[in-house]
Structure formats: structure tokens, C-alpha cells
Amino acid sequence: MEETRRTQVAIIGAGPSGLLLGQLLHKHGIDHVILESRSADYVLGRVRAGVLEQPTIAALREAGVGDRAEREGLRMNGFDLRWDEESCHIDFGRIGKHATVYGQTRVTRDLMDARRACGGITLYEAGDVRPHDIESQRPYVTYRHEGRECRLDCDFIAGCDGFHGVSRQSIPKNVLREYALTFPFGWLALLADVPPVSEEVAWINHAEGFLMCSLRSKTRSRYYVQVPSTEDIRQWDADRFWALYRSRLPRDLAEKLVTGPALEMSIAPLRSYVCTTMRHGRLFLVGDAAHIVPPTGAKGLNLAVGDAKELADGLLRHYRDRDTADLDGYCDRALARIWKAVRFSWWMTNLTHKMTDNPFARQMQLAEFEYTRGSEAAQIAIAENFCGLD
Ligand code: FAD
Ligand code: PHB
Q1: Centroid of ligand 1 to alpha carbon of 95 (angstroms)
Q2: What is the DSSP string of 198-264?
Q3: Pocket of ligand 2 (CB under 6 A)
Q4: Which ligand does the CA of 211 lie closest to?
Q5: How far is the CA of 360 from the centre of ligand 1 (A)?
Q6: Cys-Cys with 216: which of 211, 220, 223, 315 at CB 3.0–4.6 Å?
Q7: pTM for the whole thing?
């Protein structure tokens, strides 16, 4: 080994969960190093999430980075659930809550700025990152950085490296418990500097497939449309996107559609996945490394933040009080929260997407939409789940 370091917590991945965990540990005075396989610019370029729950903003504040989200984020007091031309407004005011539209890139940038300001170590473009001896008291991580073979000795490893990361893969297959459902479609996404068709985010069920109108500001729109999972992003350009999008938009919104060049386009697959082995020995899985939800419920980043907060609290208790109770309860507490969000995201996907060609399925969706539109209780249930369950 050409270089060996020691830290208390090795964090793999500098997405929102790894960066937030890092800031919370910094606040608690717990030494840590973040290893990220990509460059900082690449991480910042991933557009993804938009909606933050109130507890997510509170966790960001605790880490010293919630101010901008609170100041510059768009307050979301509800959203429109649409069935073609018909609309059902979900009003968060009924439960005294709200959400905030604030893009994941901005969350990431705020966390990176805070990290730079406090001098935290993040090693970007770390190659071949591998956890070792996770079942022992002395785990370590090996990686390649700037041409050197390196080793990081630590007390704990936090696997914050997303769905395709190495952390989950290093848990032995015979102990790994997984639950998965892959949907046969994905979301084609476009970000553009055009005024949004609506200030209210809209989830739209169209006979040919789902679409969503979201935004980042009064001049920046974020739009999504359902496409088969076989679609290749290289076959898409902005013109083709706009033509498909316009063809599915309800008339009142289509009239307001302003098109323009794409700042970003991507396709995200839709899946539900939970690995219930969120801890093995001294390795903890955090965020997308342990669970994926279809983006329909706007839950993924919020769950990742919840995990990071819980793990940070558990590590604080371990180091400050020599008490492992919170670390030992990490899986159970996290999973109680996660399964409810998995259910809601799956349910919202089933309600709003073209699931099959069977007309019966669409009739069931219509019945559910009509029931929701006529029932305050049903609307409150959606608002409660969307804003985050206590
Ligand atoms: P990631 O963001 O995936 O970060 C993992 C990091 O680990 C990456 O930087 C990666 O490069 C790094 N890494 C991977 N492998 C390695 C390795 N071997 N070594 C070192 N580093 C590694 N969530 C919401 O809450 N609200 C929303 O509105 C919402 N909308 C979404 C819309 C779309 C289209 C998509 C795709 C997702 C959306 N999400 C939403 C989900 C959200 O983006 C994710 O849940 C969130 O990014 C998870 O953060 P994470 O840090 O756990 O994982
Ligand atoms: C977004 O604005 O990107 C967004 C909003 C709601 C979702 C998913 C994504 O459910």
C-alpha cells in the first residue's frame, strides 16, 4: 500500500446521503473521509430530485445547510392530480404542512460548499473502492487515488454509494435480503429554461402514459413523460420530447406550453427495491444503496436524508456515550419509515401510469381517481404520505 490513513467513519459516495452524513458527523466532531468514484462536476451535473419534505429541510438545517433551501426553494402547498382534462387538487393546507421544490443539484452544491468551508476531506475520482473485513472490529477500505494504491482504516463504513455502488455488493449473498419490482417503463426527463405551464406541480394520467409538469423556478421547467424501459436516450432530442409531451398534455396546459432547448435530458428506470440488510457487521447502507423507489412519490432523496440523519445520531451516541443502542436499532427504525414510502411511491405509480394494455386496469385507475376527487379523507391520505409521515 502506498498510502494508509485512519479515520473513524469511512463514507463511500458523495451524493446527497454521503455529503449530508459527512456534515452531520462534522458537527458532532466525528472524524470521517468521503471516497467518491466520480468528479465533483459529474456529481453536480446529475439533475434528479426536486421535492423536499419538511423533515429533510430540518436535517439540512441541522447540518448547517438548510438556509438556502428555505429561502430560495419554492413553497409547495399542494399539487394537481389530473385525469386528462379533469383535475383533483391535493391541498397540503388541510394537514398544516407543505413541501419545498428545491433541486437536488442545489442541495448537493450547498453541501459541497459547506464541506469545503469546514475543510472536510472528499477524495473525488477514487478508483476501485472496496470495503474489507466488515465483519471484524477493524474494517478498512482500499482505493486508488491519483495513481496511488491507498488504504483507509476505520471503525465503521457508511455505504452511501447509490443503487449500483460497491457497498451492498460486499455483503455476503447468504445474508442479503432483497425485495424488488421493476416496472416495464421509465421517465424521460427534460430540464429547460422556459416558464412552467403551471406553478402547481401536476401528475397527469393520460391513456398513452404518464406525464408530470414540475419546475425549478418561474423561468425553469422540469418535465417528465413515461416511455418504455427499452428507450435509448441517444434516440431523443428536445424536438422529439416536446412533440410527445405536447401530445399528452391536457388542453389547458398545452395552450401554455413554451418549448426551448434542453439543458439536460435523461431516462430514469422505474423500480421499487429494498435491501433489508441495511447493516452487516460494521458496514451500514444509507439511501439509494439500500432502497430505490419510483420517483412518482418524490421520496428517494427524502429517504436518503432520513437514513443519514439516523446513522449520524447512532454514531454520535456510540462515540459520545459509548452506547450502541441506536446503531443496533438503525435497520428497524429506518425500515419502518422506508416501507411506508415504498408503498406510497408504488401506489402513486400504479394510479398515474399506463400499467398494461388491459382496459380493466385503466377503469380501476379511473375509479380510484373519481373516489379521490370526491373524498376529503382520500385526499388527506395522499397529502400526509406526500409531505412525509411523522
Ligand atoms: P446517489 O445520489 O446515487 O449518490 C451515490 C454516490 O455514490 C454517487 O455520487 C456515485 O457516483 C457514488 N458511487 C457509486 N459507486 C461508487 C463506488 N464504487 N465508489 C465510490 N463512490 C461511488 N427523490 C426525492 O426525494 N424527491 C424527488 O422529487 C425525486 N425525484 C427524482 C426524479 C428522478 C428523475 C430521479 C432519477 C430520482 C429522483 N429522486 C427524488 C431520488 C433521488 O434522486 C435519489 O434517491 C438520491 O439521489 C439518493 O441519494 P444517495 O446519495 O443515496 O445516492
Ligand atoms: C421534480 O421536480 O423533479 C420532481 C417532482 C416530483 C416528483 C419527482 C420529481 O415526484
Answers
A1: 29
A2: -SS-EEEE-TT--EEEEEEETTEEEEEEEEETT--GGG--HHHHHHHHHHHS-HHHHTT-----EEE
A3: 49-51, 201, 214, 222, 295-296, 298
A4: 2
A5: 35
A6: 220
A7: 0.97
